[in-house]
UniProtKB/TrEMBL annotation:
<dbReference type="GO" id="GO:0042586">
    <property type="term" value="F:peptide deformylase activity"/>
</dbReference>
<feature type="binding site">
    <location>
        <position position="132"/>
    </location>
    <ligand>
        <name>Fe cation</name>
    </ligand>
</feature>
<keyword id="KW-0378">Hydrolase</keyword>
<dbReference type="InterPro" id="IPR036821">
    <property type="entry name" value="Peptide_deformylase_sf"/>
</dbReference>
<protein>
    <recommendedName>
        <fullName>Peptide deformylase</fullName>
        <ecNumber>3.5.1.88</ecNumber>
    </recommendedName>
</protein>
<keyword id="KW-0479">Metal-binding</keyword>
<comment type="function">
    <text>Removes the formyl group from the N-terminal Met of newly synthesized proteins. Requires at least a dipeptide for an efficient rate of reaction. N-terminal L-methionine is a prerequisite for activity but the enzyme has broad specificity at other positions.</text>
</comment>
<dbReference type="Pfam" id="PF01327">
    <property type="entry name" value="Pep_deformylase"/>
</dbReference>
<dbReference type="GO" id="GO:0046872">
    <property type="term" value="F:metal ion binding"/>
</dbReference>
<dbReference type="GO" id="GO:0006412">
    <property type="term" value="P:translation"/>
</dbReference>
<keyword id="KW-0408">Iron</keyword>
<feature type="active site">
    <location>
        <position position="133"/>
    </location>
</feature>
<comment type="similarity">
    <text>Belongs to the polypeptide deformylase family.</text>
</comment>
<keyword id="KW-0648">Protein biosynthesis</keyword>
<feature type="binding site">
    <location>
        <position position="136"/>
    </location>
    <ligand>
        <name>Fe cation</name>
    </ligand>
</feature>
<dbReference type="InterPro" id="IPR023635">
    <property type="entry name" value="Peptide_deformylase"/>
</dbReference>
<feature type="binding site">
    <location>
        <position position="90"/>
    </location>
    <ligand>
        <name>Fe cation</name>
    </ligand>
</feature>
Amino acid sequence: MALLPIIKYPDPVLVTPTKEVLDITDEIIQLMDDMYETMIDGDGIGIAAPQVNKSLRIALVEIDEETGLFEMINPKIIKSSGKAIDVEGCLSFPEIYGTVERAETIVLQYFDRDGDAYEVEAEDYLARVFQHELEHLDGKLFTDKIIQKIKPEDLEDYMEENIT
Ligand SMILES: [Zn+2]
């Protein structure tokens, strides 16, 4: 595995819609392994291929050990319901945090590295991270949806205030 440079805004790859993966090659497997290492190294809970300069429909999400790792090839949201507002950050915007409105519950379809198809229902923060990463695959960025910006030094206070 190898650490990949994280692409930061305003690199054009971040606002370019990605291409479907047509064939799960050794290079794709390697890319997913490298994306995982890069995400963990950056203390991220999700990463999308454009963030490592690959314009492909691949995203990884791991919000905690209990929920586990989702390695998603050609993911798509097929159902969404409810609305929730919470704080987000992004590896491509190291200094920016803000509140964003997302669907509260989603149903997601994707393929894993073996080409097996999955359908997953997610809610709350997991649903939020899926939505954030999938928007990267469409070249969309969370900064366009921020309701209220939060300074990094205020993040902890804000999180505590909003836990209740
Ligand atoms: Zn992001």
